[in-house]
Amino acid sequence: MSASAGALSKEQLIARLAMASGSGDVSAGLRLLTSYVGASHFLLSRFDLVQESGLDFVVSSDWPFDLVRRLEPELASRYSRSSELEKCLSVLQPKFALLPDDAYVPDGVSRQYCSMTMSVGRTRLALQFLFPEDMILSPERLREIGLLAAYCVSLSTQKGQRTDRDCELTERELECLFWIAEGKTSDEIATILGISRNTINNYITSVMRKTATKTRSEAIAYAVRNNLV
């Protein structure tokens, strides 16, 4: 299916994408989009989680594992240097960068890679492509792919959501979990929600008890896996 995706019309692509994403398989949809745009490998990540340790920020990828691990500090550094305005203005704007010199890339693949950010609900995502050497990716088609990738993730998330969760979080607990995932402190969340710092900490403690997690980072990872933020 992916081998012929580049020759599909837009209508055919969307139909196949809806079928793949509707089954809850986001990877299948991303493989379609990768082939359609002329790239060779995809990496979809939670762009707002790359500052956390580990690889919990990876949503779906067919990049070599060692390459993802090597690129992690580069992504985290770029995220930390960006202002909120820059993050907003960069949505669906393709950017090209070079992989570190010591990073392994598969044979025939360019050391240059393309990155785009997008938003699905309250979640900020980044889609990175590796592509063959001497391949020129169309910025217009890349922006189109960014929109379709957000559509793909949205459909897959809806399909993958659990209708009977092991734990039920209150609206306030979900709000706190969302702002934790955004990197806010208890004091900052208290200011945003207009309640005391102690109350915020009580909500966070309740979240960790209900989700059987021990740290805020573990709670965020749980929330991502279970489509809570």
Please name the defining characteristics of this protein:
16% strand; globular; 9 helices; Arc Repressor Mutant, subunit A; 229 residues; 5-stranded antiparallel beta sheet; Beta-Lactamase; alpha+beta
In DSSP terms (H or I, runs of 4 or more residues), the helix count works out at: 9
The amount of beta strand, in percent, is 15-25%
Note poorly predicted spans. Answer: 160-166
User: What is the name of the CATH class of the largest domain?
Assistant: Alpha Beta
CATH architectural category of the largest domain? 2-Layer Sandwich
Tell me roughly what share of residues is in helical segments.
40-55%
Folded structure, characterized:
This protein has helices spanning 10-22, 26-37, 65-81, 84-89, 139-160, 171-181, 186-193, 197-211, 216-225, and strands at 41-46, 58-61, 95-98, 109-120, 123-132. A hairpin with a 2-residue loop joins strand 4 and strand 5. It folds into 2 domains: 2-160, Beta-Lactamase (2-Layer Sandwich); 171-225, Orthogonal Bundle (Arc Repressor Mutant, subunit A), CATH 1.10.10. Strands 2-1-5-4-3 form a 5-stranded antiparallel beta sheet. The protein is 50% helix and 16% strand.
